[in-house]
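Obj.: predict assembly geometry.
Materials: sequence records (below).
Method: joint structure prediction, all chains together.
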Amino acid sequence: MNVRRIRFPITAICTGLALAVSACSPSSSPPAPTASAPAAPAVPAATLPPPNPENNAYFGDVHVHTGWSFDGFTNGSKTTPSDAYAWAQGKAITGSGGPDLQLKTPLDFYMVADHAEYMGVFNQMANPDSPLSKTELAKGVTSSDANVRLQAFAGVLRDMSAGKVDPQLSDPALARSVWAEIIKAADANYVPGKFTTFAGFEWTSNPQKRNLHRVIVFRDTQHLPDLVLSALDSDDPEVLWKWMDEQRARSSTLFAIPHNGNASDGLMFDTVKRDGKPIDAAYNKTRADNEPLYEITQIKGTSETHPDLSPTDEFAGFEQWDYTLSADFERPKRRKGSFVRQALLDGMSQDKTGAGNPFKYGFIGDTDTHNAAASHEEYNFTGKFAFENNAKERLTGLPGAPAGQIQQIQEFSSGGLAGVWAPQNTREAIWDAMQRKETFATSGPMMKVRFFGSFDYAADEVNKPDFVKLAYAKGVPMGGDLKPGAGKAPTFLVMAIKDPNSGNLDRVQIVKGWVDAAGKQHEKVFDVAWSGDRKIGANGKLAPVGNSVDLKTATYTNEIGATQLAASWTDPAFKAGERAFYYARVLEVPTPRWNTYDAVRQNMTPLTKVPATIQERAWSSPIWYTPQNP
Amino acid sequence: MRRFLREPLLHFLLLGAALFAAYAMVSKRSGAEPGRIVITRGQVESLALGFAKTWQRSPTADELAGLVRERIREEVYYREGMALGLDQDDTVIRRRLRQKMEFISEDRAAPAEPSDADLTAYLAAHPDSFRVEPAFTFSQVYLDPGKHGANLARDAEALLTRLRRGDAKDEWSSLGDPFLLERRFTAIPENVVAKQFGAAFATALKGLAPGRWEGPTESGFGVHLVRVSERTEGHVPALADVRDAVRREWINARRVEANEQTYQELLKRYEVTVDLPGLPAQ
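Observations (raw structure tokens):
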């Protein structure tokens, strides 16, 4: 084969075949960075409520797969991106064989993030040798007579299988891509002020079955690449970031959100690169520039921290899906590098050496559903894959499934939600809030958390009616950096309100991590507000809130817990020379886990290897403190 | 004997033997006359095009050579796998092919642009899909059950009296307990009320007399005294207000219809029997 003989660019011939999505136009090489889909319809200004300078909480999920992901359809999902957007807005959609899927409380934003791998379904159309691009056949296919169309279509299929080719007639514009269809569905469902959608995809890198997956979110659909990068092109995150930079050079605006460090066996937040060399200043800056957020919780588990890493945190063992992506149910061995709290510490240690902080992550939650429906409502869980949309099979597994797989499915969490503080429900406002990390994650419920830090707050500020306005004026919200203070300790204002359709609140905690002068890492969890008249015991722990769940009926009462909790907290051990992060964690009272609802509804034996109840929770993005002259 | 025939181990052994025999045949064939793999110019262009669409530049000669090497590797495995019949009864491959067929049939059936008459008829036939929900403009004062305990009902009653008296010095917006949600909501739809306050509160709101303080009304948080100042009834909107949404649903409905029609046409080519008495084929 002689490479130099390759003719490139390809001369296109317009065929006008009905199979084409793009308008036919002469192609050039490299293709111009044109939009892959028409611009979103202009919005009448009257329908868009004015921006709220104090921001509203919006809830959504930017990690949703449909039957258009290879592992979505092979696991039985018949759903499309349009189904996903209909579901998020409260409509019932196909259950792919199981009961129809419908959520109780509609979401504010949603993004289909199908796997980039095998996204170009019709690759034979990109192939100029493909019989699908033959003009003769195209004529029949575009006929107005339904029967002629059907016969012509059948002819195409017969010729395809007979292997007839005609390399002279070709049009790369016929490369109908699933990506273009995904963008169309996002645009068709975007209603600014009411429901926001994004264009995005998942880059699915898992070297040696270690999860390095990222979801990529674009700010608009006017500046998008024709094709997206898949892990088949490269499984190295540094190549992904390089690709992202090239998109920026062509006016795209995008970031990447990694997830499931818990399934990475230490690779997700490793301090060595894929080539084995230690991470350095260039790597750290590139990573921080491309990745403002980390998805801390989803169906495949929560990766805040692990009891091995945080032995004094009695709430550390929450919904830990402790597996790699290996088919033989292998358990990860390396905790360090797998969980984000430790990564926040490692990031500050990097920064202390002068190399910058690669792991300065805000938090969101998502589900990673593979069946269009996010299924984050614990009492309305329908599984990750389509075959789990059957309560009996969720509980006891598909007939003949290995015990390890059944256990993995029982350990699946119902998934989380992304909470975003944004002035309006638009693509721009929500994307920008995510970029500045003014976000929080929940394990499913729509509880709201405000969290601010400053050296200038008064202790009673949190009780004032205009506390939010004051908090913004004198300090920074979640995701920010404390502005330098005059030697005293910073004060944090935190306020949480329950989801009116879920359990009451147990407590609000502030998690602090810091690196001391000698470089040693520390972490501590402070209880700062709680329900009832409980006291902190001699062991430094607040007594448990209790448990009102009746396992026989899968019900609970809200007689324990509080509807909202607020606190003003000043760091008692602040040292001006030490790097630190602070984030709020809010716990609900115990409520039934999905398996308990299922067992009661199906009149089946409750599961014994997974918890019967769950303390749903929220995590705010951290606020960081960096000494001015370190 | 029947039990023996059902034994998975037997199936495994038979399958193994069959694979071995098939592989021996394939190996012999390729030993006698080597297969030919031709990577056509068109295929190379296709690889280059895919690269260019991802990276917005043409591949270098080295990169292209690498793409071609991978293509050859894929071709070898593909052919050997096909020769072994590994594509048979593979769920992944079967579903993939079905999905491609459905994509083609959807494209083929891409409907014409609907007329206003089409859309008006569709809206009239599916009013519930486009119905605008009732909306409320209201003010609320919150009472935290945790703070009032057994006195909650009494305190709510006293506060209601005070609010209804409406003294000028009694600024309503400073009464009640601190609450993270707003005190005043403007024209919010019923489902957003349910999202913010819980479904029971949204239902109760519909029953309140407008223009005066009412309550106490229970929510997912506690109790509220509420003044509804304006209420818009739910209604089916005019086509002009929801044209895009109706058009989207109309096109989708035509597509579903066309898919089903295609399937029924294809199905006619087959005589289907199901080898299980009592189970209908259709």
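Conclusions so far: Strands of chain B lie at 135-143, 184-189, 213-218, 223-232.
To do: check interface contacts against the pulldown list.
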